[in-house]
Design a protein that fits this description.
Blueprint (H helix, E strand, L loop, with lengths): L1 E5 L5 H8 L3 E4 L16 H7 L2 E5 L11 H20 L5 E4 L9 H11 L9 E4 L12 H11 L7 E6 H7 L2 H4 L1 H12 L4 E4 L1 E2 L10 E2 L8 H11 L3 E4 L6 H14 L1
Parallel strand pairs: 1-2, 1-10, 2-3, 3-4, 4-5, 5-6, 6-7, 7-10
Antiparallel strand pairs: 8-9
Helix pairs in contact: 4-5, 5-8, 8-9
Length: 261
Amino acid sequence: MRLGGHLPSRDVLTTADSLGVDVVQLHLTSPRVWAHPRPRADAEELRDSNRVAAVHAPYLINPASPDPVVRERSLGLMNATIAQAARCGAGGVVVHAGSAGPKGTIEQAIERWLDVWPLLDTALPILIENTASGTSSPGRHLDSITRLFAALRTVEGPPLGACLDTAHAWAGDPTCAEDPFGWAEAFRTAAGKVAVAHVNDSAVEAGAGRDRHANLAEGTMGLHTLQALIRGAAPQACLLETPGYDDRRRRDLEILRFLVR
């Protein structure tokens, strides 16, 4: 299992070396705008390093949106992100499961994903990430995540992968706190395998429905819960998305090494 973290996109390998991480995740453009990523000058260096575990797609992307304009823009930005991620040698592209909106349903969200999935132009795995909030998000609760993965396997499209975020699981689905190992194991079974785990503590209580990351051992989850989720998911890589790119991240990395030993 390779260990690393999400890092700022500038001088990413230098930062990785300074923090002592094996692999990285990065954004290729600002995650909160619709701008398509430009080719990176260091794309060849990143590809040759074999250290880019994943590229995280912009947060605005929502294939489940009730707005057809948002879905169209999501498809365009997703394909542009995929193309540049492939140039960087990324192991996959992480994308949130999205939401059908406050008046939508899980069924509508899944149907919209089925419309978009065949239009994603890539042999690169798409790693769908579970979510912490949204009553109509197919990524929040284990039963809807299972349905989403099962539905996507019925249509042609890119390789289907998964990203399990520990803080999202804890905050999004109250059943996770009852049996974190079982929850993560069931997630892995539904996905087939977990390529990447985002290992984050949570600043909110179980089932709170809010996405608030905390440094490891400083949130509400407890190290035993984090370890159970990692063991149940059995990911190929664990990536920290905790606050700080300094000694806080180095400390989290030490804790993560303890958790996976």
